[in-house]
Amino acid sequence: MGLLEEYEQHFGQLSAEITSNIGRLSNVSIDDRRNLIVEINRGIDEAQEILEQIGLEINQNTDHSQRSSQQMRLKSYQAELRRLEEDYNKSKIKPNPLLVDDSSSIDDFDIGASEDQKRRLLDNSERLERTGNRLEEGYRIAVETEEIGTQVLQNLSSQRETIQRSRNRLRETNADLGRSSRLMNTMIMRSIRDKFVLYIIGVVFIVAVSLTIYFSIK
Question: Which residue has the higher pLDDT, 26 or 89?
Fold first, then answer.
């Protein structure tokens, strides 16, 4: 088990412990209530420190491909801790039935408190289960998103290679066209030069023939 998994397991244990203590908070005596408040505060502080350690571990020692899914799980843990703090604050301001002086209602209160405690524990268990299911669903979606992203990156890389090869072929074609153009220009210049030489030779030949005829007649 890696360090990140140990932090997550410890946070899960603390969350369950804090949830249980919050459920007991309104159903205990004054002394026990004080001890529970101290224990809950300690658990919340420790949970916050663990989440900070998880954040550092994700940023420093997690692969870039897995970082997004891990950060999503961290946000879920942070939301769970905020919910526990809200439940804790609500439970602290609730009146404690054990402090009521009417002794005739103590027996009825014990029965009601026991049922209320069971209901709270069941509600907390259901919330934890729903939170776990949401975390699993979020992790599954993150994994699927990561796989899709990886596939898209692979496709983009393949297309980039194809475009690069096409660009190289275009460059080679342009180079061939340039060489062909230079060769064609050279051939045209040679053709023009040869025609010019032929024209000069023809003119010289005609002049020479004309002079020969002229001198012969004269």
Answer: 89
Q: What is the DSSP string of the chain?
A: --HHHHHHHHHHHHHHHHHHHHHHHTTS-HHHHHHHHHHHHHHHHHHHHHHHHHHHHHHHHS-HHHHHHHHHHHHHHHHHHHHHHHHHHHHHHS--GGG---GGGHHHHHHHHHHHHHHHHHHHHHHHHHHHHHHHHHHHHHHHHHHHHHHHHHHHHHHHHHHHHHHHHHHHHHHHHHHHHHHHHHHHHHHHHHHHHHHHHHHHHHHHHHHHHHHHH-
Question: How does the average pLDDT of the chain come out, rounded?
Answer: 79
Q: Does the pLDDT of residue 108 top 70, yes or no? A: no
Q: Write out the two tokens for 104.
A: 């005739």
pLDDT at 103 exceeding the cut of 60: no
Number of residues in the chain: 218
For the stretch 141-172, pLDDT in tens is: 767 777 787 777 777 877 888 888 888 888 88
* Spatial CB neighbours of 121, under 8 Å, sequence gap ≥ 6: 20, 23
